[in-house]
Amino acid sequence: MAAAASGSVPAAPRVGLLYDNRMCAHATPDGEDHPENPERLRAIWRKLAAEGIASRCQVLEAKEANESHIASVHTQDHIKLMRDISSKEYDSSRDDIAKGFNSIYFNEGSSESAFLAAGSVIEVSEKVAAGELNSAIALVRPPGHHAEHDAAMGFCLFNNVAVAANYLLNERPDLCIKKILIVDWDVHHGNGTQKMFYDDPRVLFFSVHRFDFGSFYPSQGDASHCFIGEGAGQGYNINVPWEHGKCGDADYLAVWDHILLPIAEAFDPDIILVSAGFDAALGDPLGGCCITPNGYALLLTKLLGFANGRVVMALEGGYNLKSIANSVCACAKVLLGDKFAFNAREKRPFESTWRVIKMVRDELKTYWPVLSSKLPKNVPLRSAPLYIEPYASSGSESDVEDVDELPDAVSSVDDGLSERITMLKLDQDNVATKNTSSCTTVEQSPTDSVQAQNDGSVVAPTRIYDLSFTWRSALSKVYVWYASFGSNMWTPRFLCYIEGGKVDGMSISCFGSHDTSPPRGTMWKNVPHRLFFGRSSTPCWGTGGVAFLNPEINYNDKSYICMYKITLEQFNDVLFQENRLVDSSEDGKSEFPDSPLIGLSEMESISSNKALHLESIKDSWYSNVLHLGEEDGLPILTMTCPSTDVARHKSGELPLAPPSETYSATLIKGLVEGKQLDTKEAANYINDAAVRGL
Ligand code: Q9C
Ligand code: ZN
Question: Minimal CA–CA distance to 94: which of 110, 76, 114?
Fold first, then answer.
């Protein structure tokens, strides 16, 4: 090479790599399995060492953050709690305090890890901003982007990236960092980071995440593309919300090319902080997306074109050890200047991706005129992914272990079957129209855009995002078979859940579903699950047990089910009513929960795991959604109790009790009118199940 011959080899980039096993001290209190566990850091470190990457980097040790620096984004109460939670005085209350947060555990190592994680991101950011390093990777945990001002959340204790951004902006004027781009490519929305800079134009927050019409964690409406920042920060908050899982390299690249990079060019950041979760990686058990290591390498390469290549990556989520190790390794090589080959196996983005890109550009084009440019025409796209694989391979219920095998499997399933199972596909046009109209500005008064309150304060118009509207329109296009084994076997009784009202024997009325159209089909089947009657009374049927299906398969059992083909939206409405989640408000209107119990991602999980226990309603009687098989390529779903309740029935902790007269009569009517049994046989069938117990 000419450069080598003349003796002026371009200096290799100086890349910081922060790893410190003290951050492995945060773990579940009793060693319970958890996706966010210390092995994550060790797996990444082992891979980097084995590949000779670590030795090419400047390896740094973790450093605890000062409380004063954390205080720029968190309340004193929160800092104090995180500082003290690992101390002896919290030994007896630690678990209960964790339960008070959403998806959080603590142990004796949590405090130190949390301070080290935040301090480490400060440490590497400072070195990159000062030019001591060209770029850096901070392998930290606990992660940060879900942590809010005053609360831990979603496996995150302190918001590490937000703390570091504020440190650069507020504490280090000497480093001349005036504009920061935060790129959050973790599969989940960075709710905490968004809130911390929502009105701050110095920080451009960009998050691409699964949204699934509001049903993907953290399931808050503020992950939608309508949330663009407020006040001086308007236009400086960018959300790219996926409609479903399975998004991969092509989808992320399209978002980079048509949203993120043009905006980054215009914004011209002084440094880029990446909230680098790797849970959108192929093989991740939580994310359900499929970015390959080379995909990450390309996304990162494109970011290096800004801010003079000053990029800091801070680990967030990512739960498949092989996937995260390979992905971080690919990123480290990019920072070190290694070449890599990118040849996308599946180069087409989803149709939904294109629709999302258009929505986001439309929402932001007044702030970023570059987004008004024309998008390329006739881009080859692929249709929405399948949620149910009709010929699901038996046996492998666990998450895919061998990541190297995945790309083929993923693309062949999509391409081979999508044509045949049209029922499960979303109605693209319909979703698109409804989606764009669902960002509304609510004005407190029709004439004024701000309104004085009684206490003298002023309330600005709030942007709201009607979650219920979008999930309903999405789920109204997906059909399932709802399988009933109790009183709903009698069709007139089941129709109460759809049309509202009550029939003979019921002492209270049903609310009905939003969509009152009747089932598209009815069908009977037998299933190898035991029918039993338990609990001692219900508001609707009075004294006596009600029907449950043991979720365990037992081939000695044979129970009747009557299946109704309804939409997933209607199924959610049935679930809401069965679990008493619908209220009637003072004006007599019914109030349904505003997010679905079973969204598209839950459907995916049910179809591969055969059951889903709904944590959010864990104390309800019918909190377990069971996948009983398929008919016409559509899943058969029922709702029953969890296996833990079966055990409580067996032990006598929960009563077994025969059904009341009226309840029993309803079951018999169902079986007789459904032409499954004559009256006597039906009575025997019910009586048998009632006396046989478990
Ligand atoms: N149904 C990060 O990736 N899942 N956090 C809770 C409740 C929590 C993910 C599921 C996922 C948190 C940093
Ligand atoms: Zn995540």
Answer: 110
pLDDT at position 63 is 98
Of 335, 251, 347, residue with least CA distance to 301? 335
Which one is catalytic: 146, 225, 258, 627?
Answer: 146
Q: What's the 216 CA to ligand 2 centre distance in angstroms? A: 11
pTM over 0.85: no
146 is catalytic: yes
Neighbours of 11 (CB within 10 A): 8
Helix, strand or coil for residue 22?
helix
Residue type at position 241: P
Instruction: Determine the pLDDT at residue 411.
Output: 34
Mutate to test the pocket of ligand 1, among 34, 41, 153, 156 (most ligand atoms within 8 A of CB): 156
DSSP string, 243-292: SSS--BHHHHHHHIIIIIHHHHHHH--SEEEEEE--TTBTT-TTT--BB-
Rounded Cα gap, residues 125 and 48, in angstroms: 21
Q: Is 602 in the pocket of ligand 1 (CB under 6 A)?
A: no
**Structure confidence at residue 681 (pLDDT):** 96
Tokens at residue 437, please?
Answer: 């109209």
> Strand order in 634-640's β-sheet?
522-527, 559-567, 479-484, 634-640, 624-631, 611-613
Q: Low-confidence residues of the chain, pLDDT below 70?
A: 1-7, 344-346, 385-469
Question: Does residue 483 contact residue 523 with C-beta atoms inside 8 Å?
Answer: no
Residues 6+ apart with CB under 8 A from 368: 235, 262, 263, 266
**Cis bond upstream, residue 390 (ω within 30):** no
The number of beta carbons lying within 10 Å of the beta carbon of residue 307 is 24
| Structure tokens belonging to residue 277 | 């979760």
Strand partners, 625: 612, 639
Atom 5 (ligand 1) nearest CA: 154
